[in-house]
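Contributing new complexes? Match this layout with zinc ion.
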Amino acid sequence: MKLRRMYRRCEALLRDLDIPNPFDVRVLCERVAEDRGRPIHLEAVSLPADGPCGLWISTSATDYIFFEERTSPFHQEHIIAHELGHLLCDHGKPAAQNANALHGMLSALDPQMIGRVLHRKHYAQAEEQEAEIFASLILQRVSRRPSEPVRRVPSDAAGVVDRLDRSLRHQPADPDR
Ligand SMILES: [Zn+2]
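Output block (do not edit by hand):
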């Protein structure tokens, strides 16, 4: 799939979402779950260092999004948004062998129950890209959330910027520029 088409698809998905304001990725997942009539369980787990930071597992009745517990809340938010992208874009294929491999890691899940497993390493590159586009589009929007204070340049830095600005303006014009 072409990048442009992915963007359009993700934008269209986002238009249908009721994005909470102030943003909370967990509330967003709850709203998506309600719309779909399927619960989404979010669970922080310790994932292998050489593996993905998150994964989405779809069972007959429930969607599970697992995310790395040993990372920052911002990173976790990104991971969850990315996995939600996979879920909403309907990525992945049935993968029984992955289900068995995961069973040890996620002992709460019965491998027989697992219909689809999305694991970063097994994804098609296009699906990875699309999920990442989805996550970045959401997080771009919420970075403009109005409840957040506008970041100001600290006063000492402002002085430096001001001096720099003045010195640049007083420089003789560069004819090559
Ligand atoms: Zn992914």
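Reviewers usually confirm one structural detail per submission. For this one: DSSP finds six helices and four strands in the chain.
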